[in-house]
Amino acid sequence: MEGRFSVKIVDGPVVLRENGNATNGNLKSTSTTCLHPPTQSTPKRKKSLVQMTREALPRLENYRNSRRALKRPSLGELHGGEDNVKEANGTAENLEAQIPSGHGIKLGWIQGVLIPCLLNIWGVMLFLRLSWVVAQSGIWGTMLIIAISAIVCVITTLSLSAISTNGEVKGGGIYYIISRSLGPEFGASVGVVFAFANAVAASMNTIGFCNSLNDLLSSYDLKIIDGDLMDVRLVGCIALLVMVIICAVGMEWESKAQNFLIAIILGAIVDFIVGTSMGPQTQKSRAEGFNGFSYETFKNNFNPSYRKQDGIEYDFFQVFAIFFPSVTGIQAGANISGDLKDPASSIPKGTLLALLLSMISYALFVIFAGGAGMRDASGSVEDLLNGTLTDCVKDLSCHHGLFNSYSMMQLMSAWGPLIYAGCFAATLSTALTNLLSVPRLLQALGIDRIYPGLIFFSKGYGKTGEPYRGYVLTFFISCAFVLIADLNAIAPLISNFYLASYALINFCTFHAALIKPLGWRPTFKYYNTWLSLAGFFMCVVIMFLINWQSSLITFIVILALYLIVVYRKPDVNWGSSTQAQTYKTALTTTHRLINIGEHVKNYEPQILILCGSPHVRPPLLDFANMITKNNSLLIVGEILEKKLSYRARSSKRRSAYEWFRQNKIKAFYSVVDGITFEQGSNALIQASGIGRLAPNVLMMGYKNDWMISKPEDLTAYFNVLHSAFDNRLSVAILRVPDGLDYSRITEEEDATHSTDITYSQPPSRADLRPFAATRMMHADSNLNISHIDHSVSDSVQSITVLNGVNVNKKGSTSSAQLRSKKKTAIDKILFTSPTGKQLPASVLESMSMFRKKQGKGIIDVWWLYDDGGLTMLLPYIISCRQDWINCKLRVFALTSNQAEIETDKQHMADLLMKFRLKYYSLEMVQISDKPKASTIEFFDNLIEGFLVEDATAEEGKVTELELAALQEKTYRQLRLRELLLENSKDSNLIVMSLPMPRKGTVSAPLYMAWLEALTKDLPPYLLIRGNQQSVLTFYS
């Protein structure tokens, strides 16, 4: 050791050098040699938290829904054990990381929310329609319109602020907010409508810009084409193209343009206020309707004066519809939420301030326009001097005044050209904001893959992920509406779309605040649950008061988009309030069920089925699902003796529910591991379900290998029946000719036993030899594969794919030869199972026997003993299913003696009639006769291997004393077998009362021999025994 290590103490950690190489970490040795003994002056190295523990400190990065986010240690890593590997914590929420959040330039609340909102609100209506609204509704009517609009917008803003402060808001704006609050169904449908509304709003403001431009050119006797609609269409499309290019260049250019435009608008507002305060400067201005502030003018304009104009009879709500788009800019900040530095604080602050400033400005405009401008004026100075300035009203020939001229603001301003500039800035800025938001909204919809047609628009370009494809689509939509070239025709349509969006924003907040999931913790506290609900109803009522036809169309469109999402069932999980509502509703209903007494009329068979993994016994699960389908509870139980890790258990659970989804089965899955079959069955019987949603029927597959299974396995199977009856459950046992267990075919790749087997012929019904190393949960199978002829697969020379199924052929064969060998060749055609195994078509048919449509046939019901009616109810349910509706019920019942057959038959017919159960025929049978010798010999062969003389024999044996004591009951089962072979051998399904296994009286082998005698060599067979409680009633 000498000379190998050198230690250098510096102002920091100790550095060990081994043969000249630096070494990090602890030096482990059984003995210690100190070259330099430690002294009090030597600093002791302290370990960091990372070196002392695996625990992670609370950090923001641990909670991000991003692929680059840090992940805290899993419980498996901290706790250790077999599952001590890193567990995947990814969820569907990680998909939200794909939504571009604007990693380029980030905007503050002034630049990103306040200014865009003001630019959106101060739009085309401010300069081109507000004076006309005053003329129609008067000063107080217009103030009322503004007040109602303000109330709607303030309530919506409060709701919007609450939602936007309840977590991080990403790109997508209104769509993102609604979809993450109410779910993809509402969010996607409203998102599409909102995107469309914004695109149309861009065209409306562009039309306003073109109209203002035409007025300006006409004042100089200029025009481009006709000075009217054609000019609007041409200039409008060119202006849209320029604005789309500006938006596509990036946020920086758009922000600079907005600053310039807001400055012009503010200048125009000041120009109007100053000019109106100064009053008219010329007689010409007076003649055109600007006579300055006066009490008389204010009085004349105070009350409404609705008129018919352009063929439309205007009223309060018609005028409201024209005005309302001017206050729809409150969502401008939320639309570009992904480009904000802090959306949670910026959106409420900027939106509320913008709403306050805009409403004050609108109120000032109404007072100034109504107090200084006349409703009608001829424009003639001579009429002004003669006092006949308003006589043109009589013949509706006035061309000036608030009613007739959309250019009154230019007339009343101090400098007219600045008003034109303000109008241009207001219309273009609002259009610019709308054009900016639509592509990002489409991109968010495409990224979430809600609608297939919008996935194309999810692609982003450049570092900031600019949605260029969305810009192209937005341009064409807006350009199409610009071709309409009529401002008053487009405005009501936009009002409906925006009101619908605002209604759902308010409903989102109301719903989340009412349900109050634990994730609902908005930092914005100035909202109210019921105020949001009032805002929702207010928006809906106003929509229908404006125009009920267009409102109805709007809701139909939203409903259609909603149903598309419901039908597609997108695989997203955003923690919406509808999910919380579903949970609370289910919990509340379950609690309510506890306090509701059971009634025979409301009985539903709630089945616990012990079938293992869902894919292992498809016929058994299909049969149970046929009974409970969409009407009652179905729990699939799996019991494993091997202890599973958490990851393995989670994997099995996911696989089970995926199998349910693919096969359209409504069921729950429960797995217990590290426990024996009998113990696991008892646990499931006693603990499955909650409250009234608990199983009342135990369904199992028939144990085909009972004759050669281990005694303890047979006893366990038998004891499960006793456990079910002890817990007052009904019991159903299903047997099918080719067995139920298809684990060798359908098991997953991670199964523990081999599956490398090829089938060339159907399994024998009579062969009961088990699979090698048969497990407890596979004990009810008689599907034998040990006799398979492997020569078929060895002789395969070519593989042809037909309809997606691999079919192996042995070269070409003539048509005549194929026809002659059709019967023998059908079982040599090999199909490919879901796991890639090759098997004959007959096996696939057996696996799906309860999924196919049944032709005309018979369901035989052997209702031998009164168990409460379940033996009769289950076949009736099956006969009502679509696949079995062509099968008729044939009922067999017991009679006490031959002399009373007709009387007993009439009694049974009356009973079935009172139960309102349709049946095809009713037969009475007697089982008191002694069975045939051949039948007795058949039974003796069954129990030959179990029969012993000693009464103290080992478990799983039948003593001669027991056999003698139960001889009469045995003969009854054998006589029933003879009747079954005589009457029901060709039935589609047999349902019979299950013999009661009385505790301490009958042994497991003898009981299974009875069941074997009843079911062997017969069609699909269901043995059922109710819990002796009535499930049928003839009372109303």
UniProtKB/TrEMBL annotation:
Chain segments carrying region Disordered: 20-44
Topology term for the membrane: Multi-pass membrane protein
Record-annotated membrane-spanning stretches: 113-132, 138-160, 232-251, 257-276, 351-374, 414-436, 471-491, 527-546, 552-568
Keywords of this entry: Chloride, Glycoprotein, Ion transport, Membrane, Potassium, Potassium transport, Sodium, Sodium transport, Symport, Transmembrane, Transmembrane helix, Transport
Pfam family, one: AA_permease
Biased composition (Polar residues): 20-42
Domain Amino acid permease/ SLC12A, chain residue ranges per copy: 112-608
Superkingdom to which the source organism belongs: Eukaryota
Main location per the UniProt record: membrane
Domain SLC12A transporter C-terminal: from-to ranges: 617-1036
Keyword Lipid biosynthesis annotated: no
Subcellular location per the Swiss-Prot or TrEMBL entry: Membrane
Entry's family note: Belongs to the SLC12A transporter family.
NCBIfam families named among the record's database cross-references: 2a30 (TIGR00930)
PANTHER family: GH09711P (PTHR11827:SF48), SOLUTE CARRIER FAMILY 12, CATION COTRANSPORTERS (PTHR11827)
Protein name: Bumetanide-sensitive sodium-(Potassium)-chloride cotransporter
Native species: Nicrophorus vespilloides
